[in-house]
Fold this sequence. Notes:
Elements: E1 3-11, E2 15-18, H1 30-37, E3 42-47, H2 48-58, H3 71-82, E4 85-88, E5 101-104, H4 108-118, E6 122-125, H5 129-137, E7 143-149, E8 157-160, E9 168-178, E10 182-191
Parallel strand pairs: 1-6, 1-7, 3-4, 3-6, 4-5
Antiparallel strand pairs: 2-8, 7-10, 9-10
Helix pairs in contact: 2-3
Amino acid sequence: MSELLVDFITSLDGYASGRGWPGFWGLEGPEYLAWLGEQPEATYLMGANTYRLMSGFAAGEVPEGQDEFRPEEEESVDQLTQAPKVVFSSSLEEPLTWANSTLVRDDAVETVRAMKSSGSGLLSTIGSLSLCRSLLRAGLVDRFRVVMFPVITGATGEERIYDGYPDVALEMIDHRTFDGRIQLVEYKPRVLEHPPLGAPE
């Protein structure tokens, strides 16, 4: 059976990106980059918006506000290009141009449920906030990992990650600090029907 990891990179205040900021908020260090390079092979799951953004980067489109990719960003995109990817979308058309990408029009929750039960290895999300929310609500997420960078992007932050989420209890299973400033926390999630205290059944 496959394991499903929801994996986020965020600012401290829970934004997935910020206008005018480079990738990794420009704060990735050698320990963090080395850890990224040690990650096990995975099949990546994403929605249409993330596909459009990341496939654009793979085709050479540079993020707004940057003149060119930094080497760390190029390496990250290259690794994603080589990995198998499953894209859930009713708006994209085949064939997908980004290498190793498969388009799925069926219901994402039921498809991932079937992938988990019939497969092996690691399934991992990338971006795709609404997809991650749906998979979590359905109780399919085995691990929930967040890498927090030491910035608050209250003025420029985009894509608030946790808006629309259910209440979730989190059991910590891993944590570490990279380069003295980047914090990883990893949890086993459990979706709650209601807050644990004082709520009616």
